[in-house]
Amino acid sequence: MGGSEIRRTMPLFPIGIVMQLADLTARQIRYYEEHELISPARTEGNRRLFSLNDIDRLLEIKDLLEQGINMAGIKKILAVNHMESADSDLVAKKPELSDEQLRTLLKKEMLSPGKISRSSLRAGDLSRFFR
Amino acid sequence: MGGSEIRRTMPLFPIGIVMQLADLTARQIRYYEEHELISPARTEGNRRLFSLNDIDRLLEIKDLLEQGINMAGIKKILAVNHMESADSDLVAKKPELSDEQLRTLLKKEMLSPGKISRSSLRAGDLSRFFR
DNA sequence: AATATTATGTTAGCTTTTCTAACGTGAAAT
DNA sequence: ATTTCACGTTAGAAAAGCTAACATAATATT
């Protein structure tokens, strides 16, 4: 739970979509969870909900597997990756915004439809899937 | 369908998530679809799948409704909005990437986990929900 | 070589989520 | 006084996801 890494952790995607985005079977995804390589959120009804971070991890896992590394190895590697990106905060720690605040912000910017302010946005790996 | 407006049109979100993101009931969302204010994609099994653009539109609809405008009015307004952002392409028309190409690209960048290249990314309204 | 482990596939039975269709409703317009 | 509008609510069906269990081809171990 560091810095501005907030929104990429928002649980949004059901497993069906994740299967497509990561090109993995449901079985594989659940297996990686069994081995604690990912920990997707759950709905009230116990359905998995994945965040962008989760999907990133799945892509990493997939890649590492293709390189012949096994669960144990991948777990170590991903742990290290986590370390690295954790407290190396040179980044300003922005205050966390509530959903409501976000929505009101959105509404304001939305009424001028065409010019979209490039404000305080940083983009990462998977965001590439959007836009 | 112009320019680089490609990925924002990717059908990703089930209605349950959209309800949360846009703070709307399922009934409302379906009602707006009945009135052709949105046209979300469908899965093989006929479940709605919303894109980021769809969610943007829903937020616009919500806002316009709160301003006392009715379906007919909103339809007109959204039509205009579409016009504006349509062929005013000063933006370079990048070649469309396939999912496979995207994934391979991702994999390559992913192996250096820390430095994320800020390459050719532009961000819009709802992307704010992520990151 | 025989056996065990890994990373999946497959199937079954069950629960959650979403779907359409229909009827109900308060506020506003006519 | 009635319609119309923008929803709420409910019912019944179907899709999508869940866990648990057994099956299996490769690979590793003994």
From TrEMBL, chains A, B:
Gene3D superfamilies: 1.10.1660.10. It comes from Jeotgalibacillus proteolyticus. This is MerR family transcriptional regulator. InterPro entries: DNA-bd_dom_put_sf, MerR-type_HTH_dom, MerR_fam. CDD domains: HTH_GlnR-like. GO terms for molecular function: DNA binding; DNA-binding transcription factor activity. SUPFAM superfamilies: Putative DNA-binding domain (SSF46955). Keywords: DNA-binding, Repressor, Transcription, Transcription regulation. Pfam families: MerR_1. Coiled coil: none annotated. Residues 12-80 form the HTH merR-type domain.
